[in-house]
Design goal:
Blueprint lengths: L1 E4 L4 H15 L6 E4 L6 H5 L4 E5 L1 H14 L3 E5 L9 E2 L3 H9 L5 E11 L2 E6 L2 E5 L7 E7 L2 E8 L1 E5 L7 H4 L12 E6 L9 E3 L5 E5 L6 E5 L3 E5 L4 E14 L6 H8 L12
Parallel strand pairs: 1-2, 1-3, 3-4, 4-5
Antiparallel strand pairs: 6-7, 6-17, 8-11, 8-15, 9-10, 9-14, 11-12, 12-13, 14-17, 15-16
Length: 275
């Protein structure tokens, strides 16, 4: 079993040691991973479960390692909202007991691949964002769907999100919430300068081609908020569904709607009249 730890969180180190002792007492071999240790794919392929101790950002980083090897990920939330790290710290050992007993389900989450002449191919579980960087003026982005021209977005930037990423940056920019088991691609302009530019949901099978058409101006390409690159004007950015998927172990205690209601502080369940 692998344990991926956010070492910047003291609580993560405490829980890591606690979980290690718990697993060793059950004769389970433990391998440690962290963001500072660029572990090779050989080590990943030798584990059958990946436990992530951190927040959603830590899980996004761990997904880069686990998705190619199709290793299921258990997210233990030590961060803020924690949409993807569904299990709370005080539930860790109870959840692990259920998982080791086989009482769990794995959710397959769609990912996106992005490439351009200025970057190699990167995969994203949440979103790919193009923004204007430090420039004060808007950015103009020509957008094609399967080589069919859609529109030129004139905005502060553009978010291309997965259903998993629909509750991340895209939600803050007014995008829709999409159940994560669906496969689709959301295009959401950031502060559009044209009121008719609104979020659009596309089939997962389309190829999206973006071109920054502002002359002599580069923009910033962000992949899951973890990698950033400068993209030159008139460079084609290609985004499509990735052949890889993230395999996330669902919380054995709460379903998606309970987690969503809790994270967004929506109303409590209605009281039923007594008979």
């Amino acid at each position: 079993m692998g344990i991926f730890t956010n070492k910047e969180k003291p609580m993560a180190l405490t829980l890591r040691d606690e979980l290690q002792d718990w697993l060793i007492n059950r004769s389970i071999t433990v391998t440690f991973f962290d963001s500072a240790n660029k572990t090779n794919e050989q080590a990943i392929s030798n584990i059958d479960l990946f436990v992530v101790l951190g927040g959603d950002g830590t899980l996004l980083e761990a997904t880069r390692l686990a998705s190619k090897a199709n290793v299921p990920i258990v997210g233990i939330n030590l961060g803020g909202l924690g949409y993807m790290t569904e299990i709370n710290a005080n539930e860790m050992l109870s959840a692990m007991e259920s998982i080791l007993n086989g009482s769990f389900s794995v959710q397959k989450r769609m990912m996106l691949d992005v490439s351009s002449p200025d970057t190699k191919t990167f995969s994203a579980l949440n979103d790919i964002v193009i923004n204007r960087g430090s420039l004060a003026s808007m950015v103009e982005i020509e957008t094609f769907i399967d080589d069919n021209f859609l529109t030129t977005f004139k905005s502060d930037g553009l978010i291309i999100a997965t259903p998993t990423g629909s509750t991340a940056y895209s939600l803050s920019a007014g995008g829709p919430i999409v159940e994560p088991h669906h496969n689709c691609i959301i295009i959401n302009p950031i502060c559009p300068h044209t009121l008719t530019n609104r979020p659009i949901i596309f089939s997962p099978d389309v190829t999206i081609r973006l071109r920054i058409c502002s002359e002599h101006r580069s923009s910033i390409l962000l992949v899951d908020g973890r990698e950033s690159f400068e993209v030159n004007a008139n460079s084609d950015i290609i985004i499509k569904k990735s052949p890889n998927e993230a395999s996330l172990v669902a919380s054995p205690f709460n379903n998606y709607f309970e987690i969503l209601r809790s994270k967004l502080a929506w109303s409590v369940l209605p009281k039923r009249p007594e008979h």
